[in-house]
Design brief:
With 593 residues, this protein is an all-alpha fold. The chain contains 40 helices and 4 strands. The strands form 2 sheets. The chain has a two-stranded antiparallel sheet with strand order 1-2.
């Protein structure tokens, strides 16, 4: 959510770029640009970085030479379009001491110049890159020398200098679209937790994607810096709830504290809720309702709800949201905060009260097209068996397939397409009687709805409807990007006997499924949950199309994964392998249960 709010596409200054607001007293750096010779030099530096390095010594020498050219004009290079791109990438290859040297020059004697560089549309990226290098401090701890520790101490001191400048000019950093990004990166560094989109910044392409979050050890002093920075943010909470860039910075702080400093996170949430609920509003109306509908603050409230404890959620509902959930669920902005509230409270008893209140206007939520609210209600009901039948019946009524009972067999395509019975099935043909069925279509939220319903204890209505689908609809469902996930969930959640019945209907579709990008993934998931006899049935249908499968870009992986060559030539060995895998799967399943 925080990432969605970040300012994108401004780095390379393409069309539609926002004009930066220059400070009249200190914009001299921004007006100056590198001369043509320097621009050409840094363009060649970027090209050389694209080529990569085969030897560490060569890379170290290149970095040292380029940084020697940067020395004395670091601020000018950082705020230049071409120079900043090269320097940003170069810092990811530099040593901690070299990064500290660049930061020392950018900040000047007092560090006050950090603000100008950070709030520049080019310089902000350089500052972020420099701060991100903290995650490399503790690599290969066994080989760290006394000199390495001293270099890390130099970088630690520079980061602390940045913290001091940020605290002094916090409001300016919060409101500036570029400075707020530097602030967010600084918060992540101080917590020792970098998100993947900021951690995966190196001088060459990555062969494998980085982990979603990169955790690393940090100096003790950073914990204190994070504490002091959080206190300053709370002192300016009024800015954080009214500015989108400031709100994103506070969300970042909440996110990293939730992972690394849960007590601080609770304190922050308490302070945020205390401020929002203390503001004046109309008599009898909670001020929280205004912020839930605000385009900027609603994102902050989503994060607050996501990380709140049971007591906070219970108090929010009792004191502020009771009897107000329906208007909020129908609001074009506030419905997203209600989705976060539903998700956060799913395992707490307060969800039952939220559920009952939203069920009063269930059809209105569907009519408004706010399927996110509906889907999350269904997903949360997986934890509350006593509410599952009530919700399923309301869904059947809403899609007009509840009565007579014979209509329930048509519910699956209605849920998948999010169309009522009369719309999906034209009730009159040209002759005036009978039914005309449209081609099966699958929507994203329809697929998520079916996946959630597949987690209910009683799935008989869904499974009966699945059995009623024809081969053409099953193939469409299995090869659709969203539909394949719904079919996978239904098949893997079914009992062995129920799965066997569906697989018999799919027998003639195994080959076209294997030759589809989505269908092959579905087939592999079904294979992993199938019994040995079911695997054998699937293999017998596939081996007859050996040449087609082995030449297809998707099916060839199925052929290898299922061991179909062994199935054809060494059936006994194949049977032994599959039996062993089945026993292992059952053993691990018993352990997890």
């Amino acid at each position: 959510m925080v990432e969605e709010m970040e300012v994108k596409g401004q780095r390379y200054f393409k069309g539609g770029q926002k004009k930066s607001q220059k400070r009249p007293a200190q914009d001299g750096i921004k007006r100056r640009r590198l001369d043509g010779t320097s621009v050409s030099y840094f363009r060649r530096v970027s090209e050389r970085l694209n080529e990569g390095f085969t030897e560490e010594e060569e890379k170290a020498l290149f970095v040292e030479n380029v940084l020697s050219e940067v020395k004395g004009q670091a601020a000018l290079v950082s705020t230049d379009m071409t120079g900043s791109v090269a320097l940003e990438r170069l810092l990811s290859l530099a040593s901690p001491a070299q990064v500290a040297g660049v930061l020392a020059e950018l900040g000047g004697e007092t560090g006050s110049e950090f603000r100008d560089v950070s709030c520049d549309q080019c310089g902000g990226h350089v500052m972020e890159s420099a701060l991100r290098q903290a995650h490399r401090w503790n690599e290969d701890d066994s080989e760290v020398t006394q000199e390495d520790q001293e270099h890390c101490g130099m970088l630690e001191a520079e980061v602390k200098r940045v913290c001091g400048v940020v605290r002094e000019s916090l409001v300016e950093f919060l409101k500036d679209p570029y400075g707020s990004h530097v602030l967010r990166t600084l918060v992540q560094v101080l917590s020792g937790s970098l998100s993947s989109d900021t951690a995966a910044q190196t001088g060459k392409k990555q062969k494998k994607p980085k982990a979603e979050v990169l955790d690393f050890e940090i100096p003790v002093s950073f914990w204190w810096e994070l504490k002091h920075l959080s206190e300053r943010l709370m002192e300016n909470i009024n800015v954080c709830v009214t500015s989108s860039s400031a709100s994103a910075a506070l969300q970042t702080l909440l996110t990293v504290c939730h992972r690394k400093r849960p007590l601080l996170c609770r304190k922050l949430i308490k302070g945020i809720m205390g401020y929002l609920t203390s503001l004046s509003s109309a008599p009898g109306v909670s001020p929280l309702l205004v912020f839930l509908k605000d385009p900027s603050c609603s994102h902050l409230m989503q994060t607050v709800f996501s990380f709140s404890q049971k007591a906070v959620l219970r108090d929010v509902y009792r004191k502020h949201l009771r009897t107000q959930l329906m208007p909020l669920a129908l609001h074009p902005i506030a419905n997203y905060t209600i989705q976060s509230l539903i998700t956060a409270s799913a395992r707490f008893r307060v969800f039952l009260k939220i559920f009952d209140e939203l069920m009063e206007g269930f059809e209105a939520i569907l009519a408004a097209g706010h399927m996110g609210v509906v889907v999350l209600m269904v997903e949360s009901c997986v934890h509350w068996e006593e509410k599952q039948n009530e919700l399923l019946q309301r869904l059947l009524q809403a899609f007009h397939c509840s009565e007579p009972a014979s209509l329930q067999v048509s519910c699956l395509p209605l849920f998948l397409s999010l169309l009522a019975y009369e719309v999906y099935y034209s009730t009159e043909t040209a002759e005036g009687d009978g039914l005309t069925q449209r081609r099966l279509s699958v929507s994203y939220h329809g697929s998520r709805l079916v996946q959630a319903l597949a987690g209910f204890k009683d799935r008989s209505v869904l499974m009966n409807s699945l059995h009623a689908l024809g081969s053409a609809d099953l193939l469409t469902l299995g090869t659709d990007r969203s539909g394949s996930h719904a079919l996978q969930k239904l098949l893997t959640a079914a009992s062995d006997k129920g799965r066997g019945k569906i697989l018999r209907k799919l027998e003639e579709l195994f080959v076209p499924l294997a030759c589809s990008s989505c269908g092959s993934r579905l087939l592999e998931a079904v294979w992993n949950s199938a019994t040995v006899s079911q695997r054998q049935s699937i293999a017998e249908k596939l081996v007859h199309s050996e040449s087609q499968l082995r030449s297809d870009q998707f099916a060839r992986h199925i052929w290898a994964k299922f061991g179909l060559t062994n199935f054809m030539k060494r059936r006994a060995d194949w049977q032994e392998v599959q039996t062993g895998e089945s026993k292992k799967r059952k053993m691990f399943s018993d352990i997890l249960q």
